[in-house]
Amino acid sequence: FGIKNTSYPSVTQGTAKAWANVGSNGVAADSYNCSTGKDSTGVYAITFSTNMENSSYVMLNSMREPVSHTSSASNYAVGSYKVRGYNTTSQAAVDIDFGTAVSGEAT
Length: 107
Known about the structure:
single chain, mainly beta, 4-stranded antiparallel beta sheet, 8 strands, 46% strand
């Protein structure tokens, strides 16, 4: 998902500009060019260390939770976005473990 052991300006176009492996408590086990936090049940903030050029980037995430849970992204901004976990049956917010990555142009 990215080149972790190099300076940010040397990352080439086409690689992930940010990524994180996030636990249900909002703490990243590992990350690149971002910090993570938990805003409330099932709502996680991903904040870029180096902003994206605009809010038209692509965000991908995957979960390590039961099939009855899913996730979505929202609040795209040049400096951050949100990941939300919810139960697919009840639509209730739920805490999730997830991985996330961003592709696009960073400033």
